Amino acid sequence: MPETSDVKNTKELVRLFPCWAAAKKEKWLSKKAAAGWMFTDAGFKAVYRFKKNEKGKLRFAVEYMGKSPDVPADIADDCNCGWEYIGRFGRYRYYYTEESGEVQPAHPAADNKIEPEYLRGVTTNLITLLLLNAPGTIYCILFVMLFFINGGFAFQELYMTNNGALYFFGAVLGIIAYVVLTRWLVLNSGRIRIITKDRLEKSTK
Question: Total domain count for the chain?
Answer without folding.
Answer: 2
